[in-house]
């Protein structure tokens, strides 16, 4: 009996990309709940719930304790020293910068507003990854990415009456922090299991996050729904979601898989309806379909990796 032919490198790469995109989509759906759940946790300015600083430190501390138990169960070795700078960059972006800036902004604006402004995160991640990882996306790929972000920003401008608010600056800084954290985490995930990467990031942050959570523990009572939002962003947004997200980035490539995140703001809009009671209008549905189209077209366009470019003599 003749053994089945081995998969060609091209077929193997395509299969890995498909798995990466699927895992990236799962991570995006988990992260999409972060905005409404964070809003639920911190509450609006006229009815504040948990302090933003506590939500930031507490979610990372709880996820860090879960990570400590998981690493002990897996008997995972300490990452080599060469990975420590990237792990620190990941912690600065995803454990500290993004959650804190997002929580502060969500005290001032609703989840739908935050969702459309943070929709530029995929382009920021792709641009940073292209520089750091020396990738060369095709012009068509960049056009699709820019078109998707333009739709997101256009939607934000229309919904906001052409006016930006102070919280938008916090949200854009959150986007930059998230991009730094994603790219740094993806670099380490190319060599270490994705689940271990986020666990080591969170465990390494415990000396900072545990005391900060204790120091910012809320002194006023909060609704049960606020604690439920805190629990979600701690276990899912801060921990389990990254298992899928970093593995997806490592398999499918940071530049390409990051574009799936263009769907995140509109998934967040949909989740905000049942969670927060915010209204969803037809314009949002139309923009969501347009963004999905840019992602589907963009994923079919070539992205040059360093190895492929070297082989082509470029």
Automatic annotation (TrEMBL):
Topology with respect to the bilayer: Multi-pass membrane protein
One annotated Gene Ontology cellular component of this protein: membrane
Main location: membrane
Protein name: Permease of the drug/metabolite transporter DMT superfamily
Domain EamA as annotated: residue spans: 19-153, 168-296
Bilayer-crossing regions: 21-42, 54-74, 86-106, 112-132, 139-158, 164-185, 197-217, 229-248
Superkingdom of the source species: Bacteria
Organism: Piscinibacter sakaiensis (Ideonella sakaiensis)
Subcellular location: Membrane
Keyword tags: Membrane, Transmembrane, Transmembrane helix
KW Transmembrane (keyword) present: yes
Family: Belongs to the EamA transporter family.
